[in-house]
Amino acid sequence: MSLGELTGAAMFITTVVAGAVIMANDGLTCRGALVRDVMALGIATLVVALNLLRGEVTKATTRTFIGMYIIFVLIVLIADVYHRAVMLPRLSKQAEMVERQRQLDAERFASAHAGDELNITASASVDEDAHRDRGDFDDARTHVSAPSQLEDIQGGGG
Questions:
Q1: Distance between CA 31 and CA 79 in Å, rounded?
Q2: 6/151 Cα distance (integer angstroms)
Q3: Structure confidence at residue 147 (pLDDT)
Q4: Spatial distance between the Cα atoms of 41 and 37, rounded to a whole number of angstroms
Q5: How far apart are the first and last CA of the chain?
Q6: Which member of 13, 33, 86, 137 has the lowest number of beta carbons within 10 Å of its beta carbon?
Q7: Is it the case that residue 83 has pLDDT exceeding 80?
Q8: Eight-state DSSP code of residue 14
Q9: Helices and strands, number each (H, E), in the chain
Q10: Statement: residue 98 has pLDDT above 60
Q11: Nearest one of 69, 80, 70, 62 to 41, comparing CA atoms
């Protein structure tokens, strides 16, 4: 009966609980932790099955399970310390580098775009100057006449 309870609980934990955690976090972020937990579960199930085949539970069996639990807790603590001391600073530095690169790309794009606008404005100014020099520049500002010249043209000035 204990093997059935163990496998039932293990199936519940690995499917329902792990699935809910994965869905709540939008994916699996710590694959190593999942592999560690599944391996510990497999080893514990194997030790229980071997002890059931033997047909007796001794003090050595209880020490084995307590020892397995202590080893598992130590592995989890060491992994957590390693993650906080090594991985989080590394991930933070990588995120800073990605953000810095994004900002540089945005600045390059903005300066290139601003440079294009300046080039368009400058080339339009050069085109106006070239047309004005050739005399074929047609601008509303060049067609404004003074009133006295207008009267001379109409024949009213004398």
A1: 13
A2: 112
A3: 53
A4: 6
A5: 128
A6: 86
A7: yes
A8: I
A9: 6, 0
A10: yes
A11: 69
